[in-house]
Amino acid sequence: MRQLDEQGKHFLSDPQKGLRVDRQKKVVYLSQVFKFDQKHFDQLGGGALNFILPYLSPENREFIRKEKENLTVEYLDYIWKSNDIKNVR
Fold it and tell me: Phi, psi at residue 19, to the nearest 5°?
């Protein structure tokens, strides 16, 4: 379980592929993974924003909790090359 928590935190700390928060515009940019499996995250307890809270920095966690009703969720571009067998080391 510790490894899953660490990987979740690592993934969501990457503003290019995991999570980016624009506090001024009140937009949370999430990985496309959360869009692809949206129904599963909805079933797991209130959607992707609720699911990711334990993996966020305290600042992002507090901001999302406080502004949740006013936030827009948009999705980051998915980097398909990440899954390319040629990129496996």
Answer: -155, 140
Q: Mean pLDDT for the chain?
A: 88
pTM over 0.70: yes
Query: Each residue of 29-38: pLDDT tens digit?
Result: 999 999 998 8
**Cα separation, 4 vs 26, whole angstroms:** 28
The overall longest dimension of the chain from CA atoms, in Å, is 43
Domain spans of the chain, in order of start = 2-87
Contact criterion met (CB below 8 Å) for 65 and 53: yes
CB atoms within 10 A of CB 81: 8
